[in-house]
Amino acid sequence: MTDSALVIGGTRFIGRHTVEDLLDNDYEVTIFNRGNHENPFADDDRVTHVEGDRTDDSALEAAKSAADPDVVIDCVAYHPADVERAVEIFSDVDGYVYISSGAAYGREEIPKREGETPLCDCTPEQAESDDSDSYGPRKAEGDRIVFDAAENGVNAMSVRPCIVYGPDDYTERLDYWLDRVDTYDRVVVPGDGTNIWHRAYVEDVASALRIVAEEGEPGEAYNVGDRRLVTLEEMVELAADAADASVEVVHAGERELAAAGLSLDDFILYRDYPHVLDTNKLAALGWESTPIAEAMRESVRDYRASDRDGSEWDPGRDAEESVLEILDTL
């Protein structure tokens, strides 16, 4: 008998790749969303689309009835109230998987471990907020709801990705760096290039969600991220190799950047304190990550086929040129 899956979301980035992974593993898939974004599976008769708002309990119940899911992957639970409703409505499925975040961790330590590193607190005001500062607290509160539901017999689990990258990434965070590598022969990298912000290839996040649904323990959280971590400079070099481009990485410190009106934090994917997630717990379920060079090649291929350029994150090439001129005089 074929297993069935309901993906809440399912048309954009993580959700899209999750649907593809489920199809590759012989699931019957139903996606449930508002229909605000183009449905890449509109012509795929293996995927059923149910339209509705996940904050409407009756619509969510209708999606459950239509899909009769064995597993549910929840890609768009952004507030604790979303998770509260979901663990009630899907209390009898074989696996409900909530997408949390590495941002749910409330203390900086290396690495951040499930069940050891404390989570963020979440105030009632944060629970209902939509601002970026409340994102980690909201995700942490969702985790706690999952844990409580499991105590009451619900097969609910949590997956915590770090920064996700790869094909179809509408955030364009990596695209900024890919555009730099593709366009210029000198790329400014903030600091000494050794900072680390753990990243996760989107196809690996998708497979993690399925594997946790199949093999995970109710009430448990699982970190997901590349098994091989690279520094920011190494990431740029990997991108250059994948793009078959020859670039010079130029390090710029706080003083040189400030002279051009820039700061270290103006560069996307720069993080002062390393953000590293322990992924051994997920790997113990049989999950594997894609070799990072392969992941970067796929990211470059998709970037070049898209109209994305990461310009939203651009600190300004004129300012960067000023930095290069300053560094060339030293």
TrEMBL record:
Cross-referenced InterPro entries: Epimerase_deHydtase (IPR001509), NAD(P)-bd_dom_sf (IPR036291)
Gene3D superfamilies hit by this protein: NAD(P)-binding Rossmann-like Domain
Designated name of the protein: Nucleoside-diphosphate-sugar epimerase
Annotated NAD-dependent epimerase/dehydratase domain residues: 5-225
Domain of life: Archaea
Family: Belongs to the NAD(P)-dependent epimerase/dehydratase family.
Source organism (scientific name): Halogeometricum limi
Alphabetical list of Pfam families matching this protein: Epimerase
